[in-house]
Each structure stands twice: as C-alpha cells, then as structure tokens.
Amino acid sequence: xxxxxxxxxxxxxxxxxxxxxxxxxxxxxxxxxxxxxxxxxxxxxxxxxxxxxxxxxxxxxxxxxxxxxxxxxxxxxxxxxxxxxxxxxxxxxxxxxxxxxxxxxxxxxxx
Amino acid sequence: xxxxxxxxxxxxxxxxxxxxxxxxxxxxxxxxxxxxxxxxxxxxxxxxxxxxxxxxxxxxxxxxxxxxxxxxxxxxxxxxxxxxxxxxxxxxxxxxxxxxxxxxxxxxxxxxxxxxxxxxxxxx
Lengths: 111, 124
Prior knowledge:
The complex is a heterodimer of chains A (about 110) and B (about 120). With about 110 residues, chain A is mostly helical.
C-alpha cells in the first residue's frame, strides 16, 4: 500500500480538526442522550423511547468517533449500543455509567 | 487516474469526512447525497465509477437503495460498497449476500479509505 505523503496527512489532519469542531455540538448532543438514558436506567425509569434513542445515539457515535481518531470512543459507544439494543438493558447499570463517563471524558479531552 | 465517487449517507459528519478523504488523499471527484432517494437520482445523473452507500438511513435504507440501483439499467453496473457501523458477523454476511462489492466498516481511516477502495475495486 502506498504511503500517504506527509503534506497530505497534514492537510487531512487540519481538515479533520475543523470538521471535529463543526460536528462537536452533534457529538455532544448524542453523548448527552446516552448520559440521560444511563441516568434513567440507574433510577429505574428508562422508557422504551429513551432506550431506542440511546441505542441510535450510541450507534452513530460508534461509527464516527474512530474516524476522528477516538478509537477508544468507538469501543465504548459500541458497548453502550449493545447494552441499549435489547428490550431491557441486561448489564450492570454501573458499567454503562462508567463507559459513558469515560466517553464524555474522551470527547472533552479531544476538544 | 481520476475517479468519480458518489457518497450516499444521511449523516453529515460521515459524508464530509469521507468526501474530504477521497478528494484530498486520492484526488477523486466526489458527489454526495443525503438519502437513498437522492442517491438514486445522483447516480443516474452523474454515472459515478463507484458508490459508497450507508446501510442505516431513514426512509430508504442502504439495502433498498442498492436494489433500486440494480433495477435501473443506467445504474445497474456501478460498483457499490456498503458502509456500516454494524460489526456483528450475521449483519455483515447479510449485507455481503446482497451482491455488493464489499462491506466497509465505520469508523474508517480517512488516510486509507481510498486505497482500501482501490484494492477492492481492482483500481490499484
């Protein structure tokens, strides 16, 4: 496979940084959906609608975060996606809370 | 060699990063569409060399869009690569069975997306 010339890599990095800033509000909003659903799960009040929204948000985050270099973010979002996929999330809510908190921290750090 | 690629994805962020990647790294001409229906029109109008097609889209999803592309003689032979964040094996097999050239996983690496496509499509 041909190596990407340094000038192209640098140009892509700069453009990705601009796109990250542009799409950060959306990424923040999706993370907030996950946080709210996790809180609701821990409080025993997670609705079906909220679970589906969290599943969708996690799926989208999993697809995009690694593209911006946040591969750990993709892994965490995938774990949350699996957890919110079922009718009733099966794992410990504490795990989910830890994953979502780490996800938030990664996003804040990338800012 | 310059190529023309159509990206069909409802997510603006993915569309823009993929377009950036293909234009900057490979120097390809990129056309975008934000829905399956718009993608069908753009494909017929622009006759791209390949289509990068998202699986999960509201309204017409990726597999349905693919089947519609195949029904139209004008777009029937355009190679299609599905783009999905679904990593489970059964999902990927189901998508591959549709008859697409390949199933690419999200997240993709913006630096290597075009070379991955070149390899799959025999353009390398």
